[in-house]
Amino acid sequence: MAKLTILEFPDPRLRTRASPVETVDDGLKSLIDDLFETMYEAPGIGLAATQVNVHKRVLVADVSADKSEPYALINPVILEKDGVTTTEEGCLSVPGYYEEVERAEHIRVKFIDRLGDDVEMEAEGLLAVCIQHEMDHLEGKLFVDYLSEAKRSRIRKKLAKEQRYRSADAVAL
Ligand code: ZN
Question: What distance in angstroms lies between residue 47's CA and the mean position of ligand 1's atoms?
Answer without folding.
Answer: 6
